[in-house]
Design a protein that fits this description.
The chain has one domain: Porin, CATH 2.40.160.20. Strands 1, 2, 3, 4, 5, 6, 7, 10, 11 and 12 form a 10-stranded antiparallel beta sheet that branches. The chain has a two-stranded antiparallel sheet with strand order 8-9. The protein is elongated and about 65 Å long. The longest helix has 21 residues. It has 238 residues and is mostly beta strands. InterPro entries: Beta-barrel_OMP_2, OMP/PagP_B-barrel.
Amino acid sequence: MKTLLFSLTLIISGLTSLHAQFNENPILNLENEDKKRLNWGYYLGFNQYDFKVDYEKHDYSTGYKGDQMLTKKSIGFNVGLIGELRLNDYLDLRLEPGLYYNQREVGFKDFTTNIATMVPVKSTYIHIPLLLKVSTKRLGNIKPYIVGGAATSFNLSSNNGNTETIDNEVISMSKSNYYWEVGFGIDFYLRYFKFSPSIRGSFAFKDEIFRGKPGDFNYVKNIAGTYSRAIFVNFTFE
């Protein structure tokens, strides 16, 4: 994923440099694109989810250190729609509902045995961000921007009390969550449509692992909170 992000950054930088070098006075494509009050589009992309884990404090003089949560990441995919409301020449309000699929492997390593059993935890999110897009002045046929806002998601694969187990104990994900998001990208005005590659980080507010009643899940009793962190690489077409 780091290689993917680095490659995307190089591509964006390279395209911007080439545009500046060879198109100082280009023929403007889609001259009236930014004058429309409402704009629509769709996006395709990739994601990678991880967990930020906070542990309970323990008195280590007793010899107990608890279990350590491990996560093995993978790359998933995104697809969704875009609705954009123009506020002025530099500000747009965007709603980007989409379907985000990802699979993480989760396990708990005992500090005594140093052994971890990993199980797959699949997540299919309906992800709904509301974002403020802040753009620069259009430079020929490109326009860099930053974007930030809040989002909510609904996990269609939530398995509270169902399938994923470690030693007969359920690893249960919450059904919904809330996030704040921030990112950047560049609009490229092509002949027939606007193409925008972007990178965005997403950070959850709520604990992601469902706990149930105290004592139900021994593996998570050492954990104070697990918070999803994600990177999205999207390619939008408007």
